[in-house]
Amino acid sequence: MNVIKTKIPEVLIFEPKIFGDERGFFFESFSQKYFNDIIGYPVNFVQDNHSQSSKGVLRGLHYQLPPYAQGKLVRCVVGEVFDVAVDIRRSSPTFGQWVGVNLSAENKKQLWLPEGFAHGFLTLSETAELLYKTTNYYAPQYDRGIIWNDETIKIEWPQLGDFIMSNKDLIQPLLNESDDFL
Ligand SMILES: Cc1cn([C@H]2C[C@H](O)[C@@H](COP(=O)(O)OP(=O)(O)O[C@H]3O[C@@H](C)C(=O)[C@@H](O)[C@H]3O)O2)c(=O)[nH]c1=O
């Protein structure tokens, strides 16, 4: 597993080592020990999520408040998405900054966002399926969002025409109006 740093030190991209042969491929998609060694502290994933989206679907930006904050390890197993992490920790030197990476079934990259980050993605292929592990359970009362096109964050989303979004995501608050994370 190769680890790629991003401009936000806590956000990492994992690039697994793929073993290909005439049958197909094999790779370890997750190793608790390896992951904890890289992150430097024990991370306990408790929930796995799987979503499917059509081209142009944008989900996000989402996070959960403490004590149900979620770290997420995200990968794409069908198609391709542009996946984004936004630092929403008000005490952080990188507060309001974002990292975007293309995750695809082909590149098999995984994005790690610790607690304190909002997450969103845009589907680039006809269909895409995302798998992600979370460090806390879904807690709807603690579920929060930030509007995808917040002018202070300025995410450079790929241009695909009109995005398809949930009613909830069309009216999310600005970062500066959102509930404080920490
Ligand atoms: C997130 C989630 C949703 N649900 C239910 C609630 C709702 O009826 C339905 C769809 O929920 P949403 O519209 O919130 O799904 P979605 O917009 O895909 O939300 C997800 O977006 C990405 C970007 C994330 O990072 C995730 O953590 C999550 O917030 O699924 C669960 O049962 N468990 C869960 O963990």
UniProtKB/TrEMBL annotation:
Q: What class of enzyme is it?
A: isomerase
Q: Which GO terms describe its molecular function?
A: dTDP-4-dehydrorhamnose 3,5-epimerase activity
Signal peptide limits: none
Which Pfam families does this entry report, sorted A to Z? dTDP_sugar_isom
- What pathway is this protein a component of? Carbohydrate biosynthesis; dTDP-L-rhamnose biosynthesis
Q: Which spans are transmembrane here?
A: none
- Enzyme Commission no: 5.1.3.13
Q: Which UniProt keywords apply?
A: Isomerase
Q: Does the keyword Transmembrane helix apply?
A: no
- InterPro entries attached to this UniProt entry: RmlC-like
Note the superkingdom of the native organism: Bacteria
Function of this protein? Catalyzes the epimerization of the C3' and C5'positions of dTDP-6-deoxy-D-xylo-4-hexulose, forming dTDP-6-deoxy-L-lyxo-4-hexulose.
Q: How does it assemble?
A: Homodimer.
The UniProt entry's sequence similarity note says: Belongs to the dTDP-4-dehydrorhamnose 3,5-epimerase family.
Report what the protein is called: dTDP-4-dehydrorhamnose 3,5-epimerase
Q: What is the lineage of its organism?
A: Bacteria, Pseudomonadati, Pseudomonadota, Gammaproteobacteria, Enterobacterales
Gene encoding this chain? rfbC
